[in-house]
Specification:
transmembrane; ER membrane protein complex subunit 3; EMC3; membrane
Length: 270
Amino acid sequence: MLPQSVLSLWEAIRTANEGPELLLDPDLKLWALIPISIVMILVGVAKQCIMVLVSPKSKTVPRVKLTEILYITKARVLLGNGSNLSSESFQMRQEYLAQVLSEGKYLAIKPNENEKAKIENPFTNSSMTDAMTSMAMGNLVNYIPQTIIMWWVNYFFAGFVLMRLPFPLTIRFKQMLQSSVMTDDLDVRWVSSMSWYIISMGGLTPVYNILLGGSNLDKLDVSAQQQQLSQIPGGPSPQDQMKSLANDITVFQHVSVLDDIEDRVLKLYS
């Protein structure tokens, strides 16, 4: 057992490190914490609705183009996850994909030996124009509300200490959690109004997913759009990608995780 004087000294040091205790007005939660949280949620929902309205409508992808994209994706997936297949299954897929990719069987646009490839101007490509417009509108929709809300919080709630976190933190979090509070000896667990706004910006994504139903984008449509956007001047064409993947699949050295799995399991649990 430690002497009472040592315990008292330890308690004094611990209290000094934690900083002074604050008695918060209960009305702060009603007039500051809850309004900031509600405004953040409403503004986030409004931004999502505006983005849906101003975003360009998804264009249908021709079947031949979608087939081309899927076969390129299938070859990449086989190279990345082929170790999960048995040797027979991998060899069957290896021979088939190497043949169809090298022949260019599923190319959307068949190559013409007598015609030179034409370089398309990216500014005349409708897909590139829509993507650039959507990106600019997204940045604008995000920037304007954040600027207005930051001014509103900084003007009406500057210097407010709203809550105390129930878990300890290191001193490095002090600048983030106690923004606009000019104190040096305050415990890092106390959170100011401006810091609560900054934390809410990155922590309300699950709430938006619940209110808006999450992301409903079609994976195939996203893959097709990414494939179209990747066709910029100087980039590899689908024909070059298929030939490169066919060569990679042909020379790929397959090692299956299923080889000798019975012996390894018996050795592990024996």
